[in-house]
Design brief:
two-stranded parallel ribbon, glycoprotein, single chain, transferase, mainly alpha, about 350 residues, membrane, transmembrane helix
Length: about 350
């Protein structure tokens, strides 16, 4: 983000409940790594993981190219094969527990995962460090030093938290994953009319018509037009997320068969002891505070925005089915898979806001 022009860039983000995010990071790392168990050994699995099929290039991405999965997944692959080899040496197939998050003979237990050095560095307080631009994926040369200092001297984390809060203050829009419907509708309401307006201007330019830049062309002069635009954008999002969730379900089904009977579900999370939940909260103290701050911003956005538009879009029937089934979102992308690409169109828009390096 630091490479984009300051005066023409607007930034949005979606903040997630820190405990849910840690669960999701653990589950996704295990599920993606589990696909490697189809291969006979770690060496062959690593070789295949490093290959880039043509289909992946066409899709424009690979999970192993995305932070933090490019670090977490290979590490988890090694652990899965180590446990598989140990089972073969022991000659035992007896599973001693029915708790998916504590089946140490098959996968790394959750209580071990949250205390591993790689989780302390990349997972815990990940939202705060991302917003502040201090992950190991940052352009800043001092990011590693700052992060290591915070891990060693916890009180220094408060300074990083303040930087993250100020950056949230400067963003165009803040969404909440656990308020998925409202966030999608609010996002469309906040930027939808401006995006479409910019597209309309672009079309005029392509057709050779003269655009008067001294006056802003606003095709959304009445609330009815704005509501319709918001509905259209949310419909596009609904279509895209339906496809993405179905694709995710298929990939997940193909993964968990290699680590059966391990199967992470929303219900199985309730089996995790309270002490582990409390430990996750404590390890993510900065993120817990940032999440509370993001909730306050979200409520202010709703008050500033058109509550009527958001209410009507939500009551229109969109996303109702998704709200029940999409408790586990794709952790390697922002939820608004259709709406977010408009940011790049909006990049050249006239509204000038501050930036953040994510």
């Amino acid at each position: 983000m630091s490479k984009l022009p300051y005066d023409k860039t607007s930034v949005v983000t979606v903040i997630r409940n820190p405990v849910d995010r840690v669960f999701s990071s653990y589950e996704f790392s295990v599920e993606v790594a589990a696909r490697s168990l189809m291969f006979p050994n770690l060496t062959y699995a690593t070789e295949m993981a490093n290959r880039r099929p043509v289909s992946v290039e066409k899709l424009g991405g690979n999970t192993l190219d995305i932070w933090p999965w490019k670090f977490l997944v290979p590490w988890m692959i090694e652990d899965l094969f180590a446990r598989k080899n140990m089972r073969e040496v022991k000659g035992e197939n007896l599973i001693k527990t029915n708790e998916p998050y504590n089946m140490g003979d098959i996968v790394m237990p959750l209580h071990q995962f949250i205390n591993e050095p790689i989780a302390l560095d990349l997972v815990h307080n990940g939202a705060t460090f991302q917003v502040a631009g201090l992950t190991n994926n940052s352009y800043s040369k001092v990011s590693d030093d700052v992060r290591n200092c915070v891990l060693k001297y916890h009180t220094l984390g408060e300074y990083v938290l303040e930087v993250a809060k100020r950056r949230l203050d400067g963003m165009l829009y803040i969404g909440l994953t656990d308020k998925h419907k409202e966030s999608a509708a609010l996002f469309a309401s906040v930027v939808g009319d401006q995006v479409i307006s910019k597209l309309a201007q672009s079309r005029l330019g392509v057709n050779g018509s003269t655009i008067n830049h001294s006056k802003h062309i606003d095709p959304f002069r009445n609330s009815s037009s704005k509501r319709e635009t918001t509905r259209k954008l949310v419909k596009l999002y609904e279509t895209c997320i339906q496809r993405s969730l179905e694709s995710q379900r298929q990939r997940r089904a193909s993964s968990v068969k290699y680590i059966a009977p391990v199967n992470f579900t929303k219900e199985s999370r309730h089996q995790v002891p309270r002490r582990i939940i409390d430990e996750i909260s404590a390890l993510n103290n900065l993120d817990m505070q940032l999440y509370e701050y993001a909730q306050l911003i979200f409520e202010k956005q709703k008050q500033r925005g058109s509550k009527k538009v958001i209410t009507e879009v939500m009551s229109y029937g969109m996303l109702n089915a998704l709200y029940v089934t999409s408790w586990k979102h794709l952790p390697f992308a922002l939820p608004f898979l259709v709406l977010l690409p408009f940011i790049f169109i909006y990049l050249s828009g006239r509204k000038k806001r501050s930036k953040s390096k994510l």
